[in-house]
Write the structure tokens for this entry.
Amino acid sequence: MEALRATSQRPYPSDLLGLTHIRVTRYTGLYDKDKDGLPEQLIVYVQPLDRQQDVVKAPGSMSVQVWDLAAEPNQALLASWTLGPDQLARMWSATLLTINYRLVFDVPEGIPRDRPLTVKVVFTDAATGKTYTDQRLIEPR
């Protein structure tokens, strides 16, 4: 730490951690768990990334929103969830092919399943308090 303090550009925790942005991945979408033709789960895959586009396990909290951007402005927000640090820590997933947060939500009644929806995620980094945002269009299946 003394060597770091001596440099002309003092690093901050976010510089040391390397977290620069998040990505909502392409596997995010509505899923029909029981194969009855009606999707009942929203699964959101989120990757915190560093400067080299490597996934980093970053503690924090997340807010997830589902929007219907074709709806009237006062009816566009369809659902939202907030996950605290303890909840989010249990949702970290590492498989042979991917590493990410895997967030699973029950789809509330009234969410249209026949048109494109937008999923917006806001991640708040526990170490720095910075927020990172990404969104993804999900198509009906």
Remarks:
- The chain has a mean pLDDT of 89.
